[in-house]
Specification:
Keywords: Cytoplasmic vesicle, Endoplasmic reticulum, Membrane, Transmembrane, Transmembrane helix. This protein is an all-alpha fold and about 90 residues long. The chain has two helices and no strands. The chain has helices spanning about 1-45, 50-80.
Length: about 90
């Protein structure tokens, strides 16, 4: 029974990491779109609405790619660090 719990812990940690990065990948680009549109392009630069929406979409896509790259980097470095446990008989 204890061995089963030990195997569940890494799976739960992986699940937590995936959920955290899914939320980051969804929320951060949406926030960057609306922040860039309202503050930067509409507020400071005073661009036309369509132009500011296009530029804000470009900002959101760049932020999305950065967050995806961060997730891939995290997944790649975690798999290199973890070693398979040696099973004792």
């Amino acid at each position: 029974m204890i061995e089963g719990r030990a195997n569940e812990l890494p799976d739960f940690q992986v699940f937590q990491t995936v959920i955290k990065y899914c939320l980051i990948i969804i929320v951060v680009p949406v926030l960057s779109f609306f922040t860039a549109k309202s503050v930067l392009f509409d507020g400071i630069l005073r661009l036309e609405p369509i132009t500011s929406s296009v530029y804000s979409a470009v900002v959101a896509v760049v932020v999305l790619h950065l967050t995806l790259g961060l997730y891939i980097f995290k997944a790649y470095t975690d798999t290199e660090k973890t070693e398979k446990p040696v099973k004792k008989d």
